Amino acid sequence: MSSPDFATVAPRVSSTPMAQIDAIVARLASRKHEWPRVSLRERARLLDRCIDSTLAIAHEWVRAACDAKGIDPQSPRAGEEWLGGPMTTVRNVRLLLEAMHADGEPALPKVWSRPDGQLVAKVFPQGLIDRLLFTGFSAEVWIEPGKAATQGAIYRAKKKRGVGERDGKLSLVLGAGNVASIGPMDALYKLFVEDEVCIVKTNPVNAYLQPFWEQAFRPLLDAGYFAVVRGGAEVGSHLCNHPEVDTIHMTGSDRTHDAIVWGSTRAEQERNKKAGTPKLKKPITSELGAVTPCLVVPGAWSEDDLRFQARHVAGMVANNASFNCNACKVVVTAKGWPERQRFLDLVHEALERTPPRKAYYPGAQERYQGFLDAYPQSKPLSERGRDVVPWTVIPDVAPDGSEYALSNEAFCGVLAETSLDESTASGFLAAMTEFANDECWGTLSCMMLIDPKTQKENAASLDAALAGLRYGGIGVNVWAGVIYGLVVPTWGAYPGHPLEDIRSGRGFVHNALLIDHPQKSIVRAPFRINPTPAWFPDHKTLHQLGPILTDFEGRPSVAKLPKLIATALRG
């Protein structure tokens, strides 16, 4: 089974008139063959101007998002909208600017070969500032087996053969409704990594972001290489089938994907899948969510370790009211771990201390009720309200892929708990890999919590697990949202899903170092991160940190570090 069909429950919004949409498409199409011939120097100039225009609109952008999601803009939670909106966007712009300055082949800190010959590229940290701000963090992109760690394929190709008169393409990005940076960052990938001009259709849930995205990317919009329109399924269908649209990228559910590719009804989809006759003939890439597991490797954890990681898991659940495709949806422990129940109790306590959020995403109550109906043992940790889905844990879910909680993405504040019949770290590492690959729906991202002593004593088993996990992003002692936010790793499902069984989608975005053949990305962090991570639900200064970090990411400077670090330390 799969993610819910969010498109059918989204609220009605004012759409961009079809005549205006067609005029926008015509303008973009008239520029699509020009864009591949735009020099790296000119692309860098456009990106540099986009940094300033994004920073100029950031406060208004965040204020609008807070209003839509029921967040007090003066509360720490407002910081989530800074980090999930303008901060990540402006970081992506800056990193692509640096890639343009590097002729499309930015330096990789290190590349090495695994014993089986597979190449791994270290992508983070890249310099002193990264090491100061993210002490102990690292990120790597694993290259597809048998492929080289090359970068910037489109730029290399242009150097080799030049650019033809009709090499351009127009891409449609069907934006997500939950995280404000997804739509513009997907557009950046299409423009600067895949060399295609881009029209973004907002999701009806966050159509209010249209003017902010337009202002942020005003230089690209004025030049005719980028545009944003509003609309629901009718507009989406019109654009998908528009003769001037060459490629499509979407973020959403697998059901919406199948409606676009295979047909509007289940019966039509099944007929076309069986016959191998998709209705959509255009190339489509996608990011479609998952039932994201957090794999807790047993070890000798202190009480402080248990409390810290319980807060960590609570943050993985609570961020953005749990309307994240990388939100923790199932915590996986070893039955024989002596600290297992204490850890789960502390997770419950951390969630109980976390104030409930407005359930702003359409269909949340219905999806929540589906989990309550499937699991009478569900334990709400606060009161349910008309606009509130309480943080809710589901104890003792069997580790079987037929379970409702393991085959349906909740997309609301639900956390399932399951355990594997293991007691040792090495046994659990092997069993959790099999479980995550075979019993949890989707392949987008997962998290692993493992203490340093256990890592050292089980190095070979840990390496085998990381190699064996079929996920596009793996966070070791870190929430997978950081993989998304760093931008230098790739973001997308593990490769290999056919259109007939799309699951978490196919293709990658972000990838700011322009690596040509990524397989998956791994971000590693210290077991106990200090200071308080920005995604922890009890961070005290996130609303102050957000604008400071956004300004820093746009124009990094050593002179800005003291204020940034001081604010982070007060979190």
How does this model look, in words?
- The protein starts with 17 loop residues before the first helix and ends with a helix.
- It contains 21 helices and 19 strands.
- The longest helix has 30 residues, at 40-69.
- It is globular and about 65 Å long.
- It has helices at residues 18-31, 40-69, 78-101, 128-133, 153-161, 182-192, 210-216, 218-222, 233-240, 254-261, 266-275, 303-318, 340-353, 364-374, 404-407, 425-438, 452-457, 459-468, 481-486, 542-554, 561-569, and strands at 110-113, 119-124, 138-143, 170-174, 197-201, 226-229, 247-251, 284-287, 292-296, 328-334, 379-380, 392-394, 414-420, 445-449, 473-476, 490-491, 505-506, 509-510, 518-524.
- By secondary structure, it is an alpha/beta fold.
- Helix 2 packs antiparallel against helix 3 and helix 20 runs antiparallel to helix 21 (561-569).
- The strands form 3 sheets. An 11-stranded mixed β-sheet has the order 1-2-3-19-15-14-9-10-13-12-11. Strands 6-5-4-7-8-17 form a 6-stranded mixed β-sheet, sandwiched between helices. Strands 16-18 form a two-stranded antiparallel ribbon.
